[in-house]
Amino acid sequence: MKALPPAKNMRIKNHVTVKGGALNSQLSAKFGITLTDFKNAVMGDLAAIQKIGELHRQAEFMNKYAPKLREQYLEIIEGTETYNLALADILQAAGKSTLAIDKAANATAIADRKFVHGKIELSAQYLIDKKLENDRHKYQLNYQEVKGYMDAFLVGVDRDVAVLEQNNRPEWKQIEADKKYQEKVIDEYLDNGNDARVDLIPQKNYRGIKGKIQQVLGALGF
Questions:
Q1: Which of helix, strand or coil describes residue 14?
Q2: Nearest Cα to 174, choosing from 146, 205, 149, 195?
Q3: Which of 146, 168, 166, 164 is nearest to 156 (CA)?
Q4: What distance in Å separates the CA atoms of residue 76 and residue 81, rounded to the nearest whole number?
Q5: pLDDT tens per residue across span 76-127
Q6: What residues contact residue 181 under an 8 Å CB cut-off, 6+ apart?
Q7: Does residue 201 contact residue 188 with C-beta atoms inside 8 Å?
Q8: Which residue from 94, 113, 116, 90 is spatially nearest to 105, judged by alpha carbons?
Q9: Which residue pairs from 194-199 have beta carbons closer than 8 angstroms and sit at least 24 positions apart in sequence?
Q10: What is the pLDDT of residue 23?
């Protein structure tokens, strides 16, 4: 590369660089250029001019296209985020819905099994209850029959005893009357000895009604 004839000496005074040493260091660190490059370029150094020109070309391109590229990058990033969030939402919803569907299906299967078992248990319980009811009914009929027989027997016994007691009343009265008569006879003999008049002591006879009682009982069905 053919260099332009450089200036022999930089006669323009530099009053700033010595005051901005820290700032000068940032040109190289942050931007890749130095004041030395600037000095060499203004002195006609083609290498420095080329370096600055290339940096300017790139900077001009960046100023023109970097904002658009930035927007496109941001849209790519945002689109990627939106796409992946959509995928995540879809997959999560699919997982959640799958669990809900499986849970509902399992619950339905259990409900169906409970229904089938319930029908079987209901039929079995019906047979048990039916047998229990038949046994209870049979027992109740037998019990009522036995109770009726026993009630009839007891009533019959009570009736027979009552009739017998009534039938025996004259005999009991006769026994009591004979006892009193005997006592009076004894008293008469004790009081009067050979002069006793036992023939004057009246003697009750209750047995004379027995024949009549038998007729009445026969007429009444006893």
A1: coil
A2: 205
A3: 164
A4: 8
A5: 999 999 999 999 999 999 999 999 999 999 999 999 999 999 999 999 999 9
A6: 201, 203, 204
A7: yes
A8: 113
A9: none
A10: 82
* Measured CA angle at 49 (ends 26, 34), to 5 deg: 15
In the numeric block, which tokens belong to residue 87? 């995928």
Predicted confidence (pLDDT) at residue 211 exceeds the cutoff of 90: no
Q: Give residue-wise pLDDT tens across range 120-133.
A: 999 999 999 999 99
Entry pTM = 0.43
Tokens 């969030």 correspond to 85
Vertex 187 angle, CA 183 and 189, to 5°: 120
Contacts of 75 (CB under 8 A, 6+ apart): none
Cβ-based neighbours of 197, under 8 Å, separated by 6 or more: 188
Contacts with 55 (C-beta within 8 Å, 6 or more apart), sequence order: 32, 33
H/E stretch holding 205 reads none
Q: What's at 85, amino acid-wise?
A: L
Count how many residues are written for the chain: 222
Single-letter amino acid code for the residue at 175: I
Q: Which amino acid is at 213?
A: I
Whole-angstrom CA distances from 159 to 144, 163, 172, 175 are 21, 6, 19, 24
- Quote the CA–CA distance of 178 and 204 in Å, as a whole number: 8
For residue 89, give both structure tokens.
Answer: 């939402």
CB atoms within 10 A of CB 122: 10
Type and span of the H or E element at 115: helix 46-192
